[in-house]
Structures are given as structure tokens and as C-alpha cells.
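The instructor's notes for this session suggest beginning with a concrete chain rather than abstract definitions. Hand out the sequence below and ask the class to guess, before any prediction is shown, which regions might be ordered.
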Amino acid sequence: MEIRSKGRLEVFLSSLEGFSRLKVRLEQYVMDGKIGAEIIWNAFMRGDIEGKIVGDLGCGTGILGIGALLLGAKSVLFVDIDEDALIVAKSNLAKAKSEDNGLGDAVFLCKDVGEFDTKVDTVLQNPPFGVKKKGNDRIFLEKAISCGDVVYHVGKVEGDEFVKRFAEGKNMKVSARWDFDYPIKASYNFHTKKIHRFRAACWCVVKV
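After discussion, reveal the predicted structure:
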């Protein structure tokens, strides 16, 4: 399989396996394949994927990191605190390799994102939005900025000013933003709708 279009990337990412056991305290939700493809494709078109070392922080089932490998990343570090999620991510990577055995290297690290200290070219992350644990999104953004030259960070659109101010305080800036209607399928017993949609964004943060 050779990925030559955003549409084909979306189809493949949408076919990947979701979480085997969702954990609400970790704010785990399956990322929509269309949104994942949009983020990775934008990063690819900006020269931040092909031949690069990529960190997928809070990787979950691996959608962003696997997409990066499919578009030519040299290597991807998949980082997540949940061992069950990493098992699924490894299975999803095996599916990708069955279609394309020329993918770059993949390293899986079961650790808290705060313990990650490897420098990478690009960070892709769809972290917890800080709903269950306030400030979680800040922890991820701070870590991403400290270890990546370029960061693609997903969060609620309401966080726009926070992301801009935080980046500026770290001698970085927001160079692009893409907005999405982010769909979440009913996953937990407190969900009352089959699909809940909210406004989310992906910010591209770069060094000044």
C-alpha cells in the first residue's frame, strides 16, 4: 500500500482498531480517522513528517504515529501511560506493516509523558483535554514544546488564547490552526447521545 492522498490515508486510519478497554480517568476516546488524516496530511505538506523523527505523545491506539510512518517518517516514538492502549497500537502498526513493509522504525514507551525526555523533530499529540484532570492539556503542551522543534497539538477551540500565550512564553509561536467538528461516539455510561460533537482545533507551534 502506498499512501498518495489524504483520502486514502483517512480510509486506512478509519479501519484501525479502537481501545480494548476505555479508561475515563485518562479521557480516552477514539480519534476520528478523518481528523487524524487531516492533521497528519497538513504536517506532511508542511515538511514535518517525511524523513523526520516523530513523537506521538499520549498515542492511545497509535493513529497519529502510524499515519506519520505511512507518510514517510524516519521513526516514531509512541508514548502512553496505558499498557492496554499500547497493545492495540502495536496491533494497528502490524496491520500497517502488512500493507507496507517499508515503514520507518517504531519504538513503544509505556510511561507518563512527564518522564519522556527525548528530542524529536516533530510532536503529534491529541492529549487529554483537561476535563477529568484540570491542567492535563498544559502538561502535554509543555512537554511537547520542550522536546519538539515543531508541535501539532489538538485541543478545544476555547484554548486558543492559552496555546498562543503559552507558546510565546517558550519562544515559540502558533504558525497555523485548523478547526474541526470533533465527533465522539457514546463510549461511557454517562454519555446520553450516540455521537457528541464539539469544536476542536489543531495548532502548529514552531520556534520563533
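Then share the key points. Strands lie at 53-57, 75-80, 105-110, 120-125, 148-156, 172-185, 195-207. The mean pLDDT is 89.
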